Structure formats: structure tokens, C-alpha cells
Amino acid sequence: MGSHPKDVEITDAHPKTLLNQKHAEYIINYSKKKDDYEYTMTEHFRMSGIYWGLTALDLLGQLEKLNKDEVIDFVKQCQSSNGGFSPSIGHDPHLLYTLSSIQVLVLLKAIDKVDTEKTVEYISKLQNEDGSFSGDEWGEVDSRFSFCAVASLTLLNRLDTIDVEKAVQFVLQCQNVDGGFGTRPGSESHSGQIYCCLGLLSITKQLHRINSDLLGWWLCERQLPSGGLNGRPEKLPDVCYSWWVLSSLTMLGRLHWINREKMVKFILATQDPESGGFTDRPGDMVDLYHTLFGLAGLSLLGEKSLKKINPVFCMPQYVLDQIGVNVQILSI
Amino acid sequence: MEEATCERIIKSVDTIIRKDSALNEFGIIQSASEVNKSPVIHIDHKLGLESWCVKYVYKYAYTVVMRYSSIGGYNYSESVIRGTQFCLLLKPEVTTFWNIRKKIILKGLLNADVDLLLSRLVLTLKPKCIEAFQHRRWLYSAVLSDQNSGSARNNVILNNNIGVPGTLKDFLWAELDLCTWTASKKPNNYHSWNHRLWVVKKLSSSVEDTEISELLKVEYNSSKTWISYHVSEHSGMHYRFKILDEICCAFEKGRLNLVYIDSNLNTVKEIYLKDLKLSEDWLQSYPDHEALFYYRRNILAKLQYLFSNNGQKASPPPPAYKRSCIETIDSEWNAVIQRELKLFEEIKGHSDHYTQLCRQHLNWINNNISY
Ligand SMILES: [Zn+2]
After folding, report:
1. pLDDT value at B320 more than 70
2. Would you tell me which of A86, A207, B26, B198 could form a disulfide with B121, CB atoms 3.0–4.6 Å apart?
3. Where would one find the signal peptide in this protein (chain B) (predicted)?
4. What's the gap in Å between B185 CA and the centre of ligand 1?
């Protein structure tokens, strides 16, 4: 491959080895930081932040470094009377944070600490006539919310409470002629949405209903000469999109269609050797979100010092093995 | 900073929003430190806030709203309306605050016009803010177009654009302008184009046949112009592709005449053949753009489907085309493919990147197109 107009350059100055300990320290310090203003500014997605941090720590084998009781207590306080979970105390429940909460509780083996019956009811009531899901009572529809609903119910072992076939059909309607998926029928293909839609099809064992070769090619064309993957044509490479694409290719059994070595090099280059943590692209600011997806990507690519990740739930594989959840992975 | 000062700043922002319905921009003005004058600037229908006060006032407003929220009394409080408004200008990602306003609107205690303006101002600072687009869709569905929303709806005068009252249809037409604006501010603005598709769907289901022809003609022409100036933006091309689908649908339902869209168009196939040529022209001028190749693939896939279907219904299109679609090889289709294979021999080799894109394109043809 030659020069590319929308790529980044990786130089010798960028990290080449995985700085496990640095990342663990970054996450632990982040959880202790209680700067008033920043706390306020990030409260509306706190629950997802907790999920990113805990999952990343577990991949690093250092989950015990966090105070589990404190986390469980917080999640309990975020359960709304209707059964759904909010991102933080005093905020409104939403499917996005309901999934994060359930993931956190399953990870900490504390799912029995909340009223899951109510949660199941909350989720199943959000399914619409056409099989789609609204994110909350206000009605916005998005294929991401379909994934959140199906993934949550699967972790609770209650997928029987919704119309699964209709949910699948809605997701299939979000597929475009390029093989990708968007937020709603007719919406542009987008790697994040592709991950959600494939994830739903994988959980429900319906992956055979799509054209995997067509989508597989579209996905592997996201790789740029630097090794990084972008989320849509002519966009810059980004570690979080690397995860959406890598996990999607894994579900399709086509992970080997991308250049593994270059991908690893790109992800490693997004580490900040001083502060710990990963960024979207080499040289940017680190955050928890990209830290999880950087580690998850490396785990998927076979990094031995990390625990194995599940491509659909983005949770450590051993956790899903323990509760007997399995997903469909195609093979070619 | 004293609470009274915070309160004064929040009120001052509120007064401006209430009084100047033609406000057209909100922004943060960088300023080094506190000065002895108001940090709220209002000039020429633009609202600005000096950066030094943001941290304090946001924190104060946030706390006020959360305090009311926790005791459930926010429905009736002016300070919650003002507080959520202030916070959302700075941090529109806080969905809960939009929700609080939804509840107040449904109670008839807040005019939906205020939120059309607020969400518009938010988009001037953050043109790809999904929460602002969502809130506008909710306002349309739950208040503006809902006959049952009673007092919430009665108060609305739909001064969504420049303070001129209008109808629901006017609102949707103006919404297209808003989308053009947000798309021009942020490249590949996914949520803006998605919102535009939503507007087109709403408009086409709520207007007369003559107006749908007008709508699709306008979008057909404007999307073409847009692409020619934004050849690296796949979002705009995806939108055009969907507009072509809408034209087919309306044509098949007998709602529009193709010649009204373009005097040379007679059949559905011709719509796509014309864009195949268009895409060729774009590629000749801008050969290094991956997005243009993807647009071409979409058109080719659609054409393959149409040819394999012998001109039968173009809609609804199947999600992803498989090679087996074509049973009999049509000579016209064959000509399209022969041209396709030659085309890339002709313009091969301008840059390494272009060579790579051509290789991918031919690979895609081999995998997905029958010839
Ligand atoms: Zn990212």
C-alpha cells in the first residue's frame, strides 16, 4: 500500500510494547479522582465509564484492585423504580446504561443484588410493533438499542420475554446494499452500528441470514496503511472503531482478512507511556473508553498477557463461560 | 463565585432566548479571567458566553436542577427550566435534562418553540449533537404533529427559523435548511444526514403529490451539487442514493412523473444509469476518493438488481445483493459491465492510493457482479 491521504503516521517514538501496569494504574487513579467539575461533566455516562474501567482492569488481571462493594452499591442506587438503570444517581434510565449496569453486575457476580424481574419487564416493554427497540420511554429508535436489549436479556437468561424474530427482522432491515448496517432502515452504514447488529444476530444465532463476504470486504477495507481501522470510508483511523470492526470480523470468521501485525502496531502506538491509557489516535488524549477498546482489540488479536475477550459482549470470555452464555461465530 | 452572580448570568441568558427568537448562533468566547462586567454577550442575534464563568455557573445550574429533580418538584419550577437550558447549551449530551424539559412541555408549562430554538442554538455550537436532533424529532412527533397533545401544542407558533410563524410543512422544509447547515459545519455528519432522511420521510408522507415531486426534485438537484463540492463525504452520497430510492418509490406509486425530476428520465433504470455516468465524471475529476468508489458500487449493485428483475419493481430493495441475482444476462447490462472494466484501465495509475482503490473496486466487482 502506498501513501494514504487520510491516515496517521506511526514513528519510532510511539510505544511498541504493551504497558500493562501503566494502564492498570491509570484506571485505578481515574476511579479515585473526584474533581468536582469533571465529575459533574461526566456523570451522564458514568455507568458506562464504570463498565469500561472494570472490564479493562479484568482483562489486565487486576479486578481485585477496585472496591467492588462500592461499585455494586452505586449500581443499585441507579436502578429506577421501573426496573431500568440510569447512568448515575438522579438521571433517567435508558437501555444503554441498563446494559452497562448488567455487564458490571455480571462481571462482579452480583446480579442477584438487584431486582432483575423488573429490569426484564422494563426492557421487554421497550420493544415496538416492528421489532425495534426504543432507548427509553421517549421513543427514539436505534439498532444500538436493539443490541442493548437483546444482550441484556441474554445476560439475564430471559431472551424469551421479547419477540426475537421480529427483533432480528428489524435489524436485517437496517442493512444496506454495501452489506453494512445503520441506525435505522435507510441509514448509512457505520462500523459501530454494524457491531451492534452483528452482535444481535450472533446472540440469536442468525448470522447466516446476511451476506458475510460482502460485509467482510467492506469491513477489512477499513484498514489503512498505518494499520488502524476507520469507521466509515475516508474517515481517520481510531482505536474504538478498530474494536467495532475487529469484533465484527471475528463474528463473521474473517478476522484474518486484515493485517494483524499492522493492527497491533497501531493500537500499541495509541498508548500514552506517561499517563497510561489509550487514545483514539497516536498522540491524542487518553480516556477510559479508548483504553478498554484498545485492550479489547489486542486481546482479540491474541495478546497473551491479557484475558481473552468475547467479541459480542465485550466482556472477558471466562465470565460468559461461567454463566453459560454462548454466541455464534461463523467459520469459513 | 457567588450564587447570586450565577443566578444572574443564568437569568440573563434566559431573557435573551425568550426575547430574541431570531437568535442564530451560540458560542463560548475565550477570555482569560473574570472581568467586572457581564459574561453574557448578545450582538446581532448571536449569543455568547465568556469562558471564565462556564465552570462555576454550569456547576451551580447543574446542582440546582439535580436538587429539584431528586425531590420531584421540577415540573413547576422556573429555575429548573432556566437551569436545564443553561446546562444544555454547554453540555447537550445530558439526556436527562432534555427529558425534564419534555415533561414540562407536555404539562403545557413550557412552549415547544423555546426548545426548537434551544436545540437549534446547541447545533450551532455542536453540529453533530445527536441529542439535539433527537429532541427535535420528539418535539415534532409528540407535540407539533400530535393532535392529542393539547395545551402543549396550542402554544406553539412554529417560529422555527427566523421568527416567522408557519405550518407543520413549513417546519419540515426549514428543517432541511438546518440539516444543510449542520452538514456544512461538520464533514461526514452522520446524525445530520440521518435527520435529513427522517425529514424527507415525514414530508413525503404528509404532503400532496405535487409537493412530493417538488421535494424530490429539490433534493435530487441539491444532493448532486453537494457531492460535487464534498467528494470525500460518503454520508452525502448515501443520502443521494436514498433519494434515488425515494424517487423510484414515488414513481412506482404513481405519485410523480420522472420527467419532472429530469427531462431525460423515463424509466427507473435510467435514474441509476444517469448516476453511474455522473459518478464516472466525479471519479475522472477526483480519482483519489474512496467515497466516490463506494457510491459507484451502490449504483452498480442497484442496477444489477434492476436488470436481473427485468424492470420489475425497484422497491423495496433487498438488503444485500448476492451474485446469484442475475439469471439471464441482459445485453444492456453487459454493456455497463464492459464499460466498467475498461473505465479503470483508462484512468489507472494517477497515484498509489488510486491504484489501491481500483484494485478494491475490481475485487468487489468480481465478488458481487455477474458478467
Ligand atoms: Zn474513538
Report:
1. no
2. B26
3. none
4. 20
Q: Residues near B93 by Cβ (< 8 Å), separated by ≥ 6? A: A44, A45, B129, B131
Tally of structural domains, chain A:
1
**Contact criterion met (CB < 8 Å) for B238 and A189:** yes
Q: Least CB-CB distance to B62: which of A40, A214, A234?
A: A40
Structure confidence by residue, pLDDT tens digits, A33-44: 777 788 888 999
A232 Cα–ligand 1 center, Å: 12
pLDDT tens-digit profile of B189-208? 999 999 999 999 999 988 88
Look-up of cell digits 446581532: B44
Residues of A in contact with B363 (CB under 8 A): 217
CA distance B246 to A286: 43
Domain assignment present for A330: no
Q: What is the pLDDT of residue A33?
A: 77
Select the residue from B51, B71, B94 to test the A interface by mutation, using most A Cβ atoms within 10 A. B94
Asked, for residue A133, whether it belongs to a domain, the answer is yes
CA dist., res. B352 & res. B355, Å (int): 5
Distance CA A306, CA A293 (A): 13
List Cβ neighbours of A213 (8 Å cut-off, separation of 6 or more). B367
Contact A327, A202 (CB under 8 A): yes
Q: Which domain holds residue A44?
A: 20-323
Q: Could you tell me which residue, A11 or B198, shows the higher pLDDT? A: B198
Whether B117 shows a pLDDT value over 60: the answer reads: yes
A292 within a domain of the structure (yes/no): yes
Q: Is the dihedral of CA A54, A60, A63, A66 positive or negative?
A: negative
The answer to whether B302 and B319 are in contact (CB under 8 A) is: no
For residue range B16-56, list pLDDT tens digits in order: 999 999 999 999 999 877 777 889 999 999 999 999 999 99
Mean pLDDT confidence for A152-163: 98
Alpha helices in chain A (DSSP H): 20-32, 36-42, 46-59, 68-77, 95-107, 116-125, 143-155, 164-173, 191-203, 212-220, 239-251, 260-269, 288-300, 317-323
Is residue A3 in some structural domain? no
**CA A212 and chain centroid, separation:** 21
**pLDDT tier for residue A1 given thresholds of 50, 70 and 90:** very low
CATH number of the domain residue A171 falls in: 1.50.10.20
Of residues A4, A186, A217, nearest to B353 (C-beta): A4
In angstroms, the CA B152 to CA B104 distance is 9
Q: Which three cell numbers stand for residue A32?
A: 479515585
B160 pLDDT higher than 50: no
User: Locate cell 421480529: which residue?
Assistant: A166
The answer to whether the beta carbons of residues B143 and B114 sit under 8 Å apart is: no
Q: Which residues of A touch B93 (CB under 8 A)?
A: 44-45
